[in-house]
Structure formats: C-alpha cells, structure tokens
Amino acid sequence: MGVALSSCTVPDAAAPTFDIGPAEMEIGVGIHGEPGRYRRAVMPADDIVALLLEPILKDLSLAAGREVLLQVNGFGGTPLIELHLLNKLATDRLRAQGLKVKRWLVGNHTTSLEMAGASLTLTALDDELTSLWDAPVTTPSLRW
C-alpha cells in the first residue's frame, strides 16, 4: 500500500502522471507512478503509517504471534532517513497488534523515478519463506 507526496514523470510521457498540490497526498498509488485510490491532506508520519497498514492488516487477518516481513520501499524521491522513520512507526504498530516483525527491508528498491512517497508491504512468514528470504542473494539492489 503506497502513499505519494508528488507525482513522477515517465520519460516517454515527459509530464507528471498526475497533479498533486503541496499540501496533499495520494493514497494507494502504484509503484509505476499510477494515481492512487484517493487524495487527502498531508498528515503526520504516524497517521500515514496507520492509514497504510489498516487495509493490509484487514486483508491478511493475521493472528497474534504471527511472524512477518515488513518492507518499506521508497519511490525514489524520499530520503532514507524518512523511510527508516516509517519502518520504526510501522514496526511499533505491528508489535502493538501482537505481530512479530522478524525481518525488515528498507530502501529504494522498486521506485517510480523521482516520486516522493513510499509503500509498505507485509508478508506473513513461515519457516519455508523465512529460509528463502535468508538465502544468499547478489543483485544490483540486494546483497546478503
């Protein structure tokens, strides 16, 4: 579930994919710069995290004690320190819901060029998924 504070400019189009005011944010944006589900006034980071996590948690219906992977992905125009703030706030909220955040990934991994914003992705983990996540990887973006 993503939020954008600005649009991106797809090179082929040479124009922003949508117009947004300086005091607005777009909720439910796509990682390719697609417009979101709705727009509202900019809110504090903790409120944005709550807004993004609500539909995710509703859809997943995870039992307390479940282990999860939290991914906080920047869209290319959000400073890393802000992504880490979103990660901290989301982790705190998930723990308050009784979930165990076992793994994190924070950074600009799937971007919309220069779009200011971020997405939160939550994956319910089991032993197999955890072992697959922990397997060695060497790509331009991920290495462990």
Q: Can you tell me about this structure?
A:
- The protein is an alpha+beta fold.
- The protein has a single domain (2-134), classed as Dihydroxyacetone kinase, domain 2 (Hypothetical Protein Tm841, Chain: A,domain 3, 2-Layer Sandwich).
- 28% of the residues lie in helices and 24% in strands.
- β4, α2 and β5 (100-107) form a beta-alpha-beta unit.
- The mean pLDDT is 93.
Quick recap:
The protein is an alpha+beta fold.
Overview features:
24% strand; globular; six-stranded mixed beta sheet; single chain; alpha+beta; 3 helices; Hypothetical Protein Tm841, Chain: A,domain 3; 144 residues
The strands making up the biggest β-sheet line up spatially as: 3-2-1-6-4-5
CATH topology name, in short, is: Hypothetical Protein Tm841, Chain: A,domain 3
Query: Could you list the spans in which at least 5 consecutive residues all have pLDDT below 50?
Result: none
Count, helices: 3
Output the structural class: alpha+beta
Computed over alpha carbons, the radius of gyration is 16 Å
| Mean pLDDT reading | 93
- CATH architecture, please? 2-Layer Sandwich
Q: State the shape.
A: globular
Q: State the separation between the terminal residues, measured CA to CA.
A: 26 Å
